[in-house]
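Handout for the seminar on molecular recognition.
Each group receives one record of this type.
Step one: identify the two inputs.
Step two: read the structure output and locate the region that could contact adenosine monophosphate.
Step three: write two sentences on what you found, then compare them with the reference statements printed after the record.
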Amino acid sequence: MEDCIFCKIVKGEILSHKIYEDDLVYAFLDVKPVSPGHILVIPKDHHENIFDCPENILSQIIKVSKKIAQLLKDKLGVEAVNIFNNSGGVAGQDVFHLHFHVVPRSKKDNMKMGFIGKKDLNINLEEIKNKLVLES
Ligand code: AMP
Ligand code: ZN
């Protein structure tokens, strides 16, 4: 993907603050952090988001995210982390190369995640469950 900024970061064509790299995965500091130590974990190959990324690469991204969460605890003393991915523009994805955010949290940061359950939505859980049951 010639115009993809994250592909350029993996290739070293754009500078990044690299935290970790292996055969499949690359991790680096977010340039506009929401808290100190905000890290992005990405596949080295170009995959747009969760929908087109192979499972073995996703597994490695999650394994690395766990190691990074521990690293943040050990080295920066963070109390907790949010780990999240935006897949698709409507879900807030701005860079269309898959990335998982690992965001350090502390009691004092006063941040609020943006999902609040809505009591007044007339949703039939049984109906939705019947459409969604996934075979193992
Ligand atoms: P999203 O909205 O989930 O697509 O997040 C994209 C993230 O990429 C944002 O948090 C940006 O700050 C971050 N970002 C964009 N360009 C760069 C870059 N060159 N280096 C590091 N992080 C970047
Ligand atoms: Zn890319």
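Reference statements: The first strand starts at residue 18 and ends at 21. The chain has a mean pLDDT of 95.
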